[in-house]
Write a structure and sequence with these properties.
Blueprint: E1 9-13, H1 21-28, E2 34-41, E3 48-56, H2 59-69, E4 73-74, E5 77-78, E6 80-83, H3 88-93, E7 97-101, H4 109-116, E8 122-129, E9 135-143, H5 146-156, E10 160-161, E11 164-165, E12 167-170, H6 174-177, E13 188-192, H7 200-207, E14 213-220, E15 226-234, H8 237-247, E16 251-252, E17 255-256, E18 258-261, H9 265-286, E19 291-295, H10 303-310, E20 316-323, E21 329-337, H11 340-350, E22 354-355, E23 358-359, E24 361-364, H12 368-384, E25 412-413, E26 440-442, E27 448-450, E28 459-462, E29 468-470, E30 537-538, H13 554-557, H14 562-580, H15 585-595, H16 598-606, H17 608-630
Length: 631
Amino acid sequence: MTTPFNSASLYVGDLPTDVTESSLFETFSQVGQVASIRVCRDAVTRRSLGYAYVNYHNAADAERALDTLNNTLVKGKPCRVMWSQRDPALRKSGVGNVFIKNLDKGIDHKALYDTFSAFGNILSCKVVTDTENSSKGYGFVHFETAESAEKAIQKVNGMSLNGQKVFVGHFLARKERVPSDSEQKFTNVYIKNLDSSVTEDEIRALVSDKGTISNLAIMKDEKGVSKGFGFINFEKPEDAKAAVEVLNNKEIKGKAIYAGRAQKKSERESELRHKYEQQRAERANKYQGVNLYVKNLEDNVDDEKLRAEFAAYGTITSSKVMSDEKAASKGFGFVCFSSPEEATRAVTEMNGKMMGTKPLYVALAQRKDIRKAQLEAQHSIRLKAGLPPGPMGRMPPGGPMGPGMGYPNAPMFYPQPGPGMPPGGQMMYPPGQMMPRQRMYPNPQGGFQGMGGGMPPHYVVPGGPGGMQRGGHNPRGPRGGAGMQQMGGPGMNKNVGPGQRRPGPGAVGGRGRAPEDQAGQVPRPAPQAAPEAPAAVPAPAASQGESVMPPLSVKLLQGYPAEQQRMILGERLYPQVASQQPELAGKITGMLLDSFNVSETIHLIENGEALQAKIVEAVDVLKQHQATGAQ
């Protein structure tokens, strides 16, 4: 029996990738009332990461689930249940963590747990398995205290479990348990860069005085020609080390050969990966702040044209337009300057500038992992603020239970049984899954026009006796009733201008039914002129509790159909166009959406100067079209 923790939250690991909150609820609701379940998923691919968190209403149910459901099969795979550890220092410190190897294939998670539970409270217990769920012969047991781990090592190390002598010791991180070549003992020597004419006898003659050679071989192809490398196996590690010192960098038949410890394939790959990461980091540091990323290039722009465009801002050390296997431009490239000051000036002057018929996007180049980290940080901030990651907070395709589920890693909440609730409870959707209201934008010709979604927080509309009402939401009247009516509907006077409202209650934004007098009649106040109000005025910054529009990006829009992407972009673009050209806002917005792709449109939304230039061009085109039509 484990000591109960203060919380009622459990960590569930080793889950199949296709597990869902529903399947976990069926398993864990058998022992107590589940408050919420969250399967952790990748922020981009939405695939399960193989673990989840289950929260109960009380700690007693959580403790019972830990004792009874640990190693329970979930979709044919045993799950690992432990108390949720919010402090990562305990998990990463390695204190109390024990490594066991040479285990019999028949020992599973439960058998290992039963063996070591006698020495103290176990936080986690795991036998490592392959893709077919077969044991690899080793595992880990994480005790709550270091004293329990020491006791287990003293008692079990060297014991026979299922007929096999096991090793039990302290867990060591990979970097701690892999010593350098100079410290390792080895007997097998790898030699390479051999001339094809070098024979085994020649190599043997060079190192025979260093010790007894068990085996020596130069690798050859099917035609018997040397591949240029081979192996020498000595009986003693000291002899092998002495042979390496003699042969390494020794010139044989005009070639300096390499000699060193023979490595496993995994070791070589790890070493090469480490060297590559180190070189990449050095290269990134070298070009930090001077290398620019340029996109939205036309197809006919090559390296020289790109260099000429940026040459006015400083000394360019390199310029490159990226191309595919057919030598066709990919539409982006890089320009590297000699100093950060020159690069900064180029970004300031060239970002948004027209090159040919397209506006350039220019920014400091970033490594892929840095960009990914920034996106994940932004994603995390939105989640903490209670905002969905998708644009405009719109429900993603698939509905509440679809792949989007409102926001990534949203927990499923389960109500406690009570009056009016059937036994066992029913699944409730995560917060933020309500159908969006009709989004209303001011129409320059009067009234309002809908564009889907919720009311933008920076617009207010006339409503009811209170005058202005934020967001188009009527707090008292039911939707579609005494509140604001559809344009041209029975609640809207078509003859009323955009800055007026019809006299009397019930015109626009009424406050529900008025109280009746004793005679059963609704009192009717005398009609009086209403003060003029603008059709749409900017509201103050969004107060606490109001929705804030998340920043747009191509990645955020990829989950939506093309038609919905166009609507989302139009919702962001229209108010900015209307602020400059209210009479032509609809036409200009349509022209911009038809002329540019998603990334270019996002650039216009975020760059006011670039958008203003495009609006001026669109107005000129419309004037020319009108002049042509008049002739």
